[in-house]
Amino acid sequence: MPKLLYPTSLALDPKLLEGYSVDLVPYNVKENIPEEHTDAEILVTWTNTAANLKDAAQRLTKLRWIQSLAAGPNDVLGAGFNPEKITITTGSGLHDHTVAEHTLGLLLNAARRFYEMRDFQAQGKWPGHLGGPQPDRPQGRFTTLQDANVVVWGFGNIAKCLTPWLTALGANVKGVARSKGVRNGIEIYAEDDLKDILPKTDALVMILPGSDATKHALNAERLKLLPNHAWVVNVGRGTSVDEEALANALEQGSIGGAALDVFETEPYPEGGRLYKTPNTIVSPHAAGGRPQDPEDLIAWNLRKFLAGQELKNVI
Asked: Which residue among 26, 102, 165, 269 is the one 20 to 30 A from 203 at the CA level?
């Protein structure tokens, strides 16, 4: 009977995985796998330490399938597991709602300037300039999602969850992906079209995965294309943004602001420029971090694995 190791780093209900011909064994993601369980054929991962994964890659020689509950498999691949010999599946889909909700919160924070109100509150001051009569949807400012031009760069499952909420609030949404088309009623453009789209953008939402192809996708050249009131929101991977170029743009006032949930180095280093740049919201990789109903995905893939069929979310 194959042995499945599941992490104790989240409230996983093993009863929902019972009934399959597997031996279910919990394990501590911060410690090396006990010797008696190195014969496991299936490993479920979530917030494992680098040391745990590296040790597992060397000692779990019978491993056939890894189910990561993270949206991306960077930690698993970085530990040395060979995807040509071991099937690796991701937790894509488990974080769609939570990341989309956090993204919406960042956009509303930016538009309604809650962050600035909090800054004034911390100083014991009344932010009178943010209250009282205000112009409705003024040109050249990002003050509301109603009629705002929002561009979502990286149009996967999270974007498909987010965009109906944006359109419900009146935003004009465009998507950017590797191939053009229409997805869920949203017009999708190619990256070559960014030179035409960015100058008309009020808020740029980035949900790109981390890879060599997306490294510094938002660079100084593309930042210069954005209007000086436009906000950048990044909930994808920190490596997709050139942080030095972004900090320069914020300090120079050539963009309106940035709401960042991901960074090239995490935790973002103490004394980093983005802690002090104007109109910047630093979110500590908090958009996801709570996979929803992971047992459903594990059970689905476990059924397929035991039947010798193709699994979901294979990298």
From this structure: 269
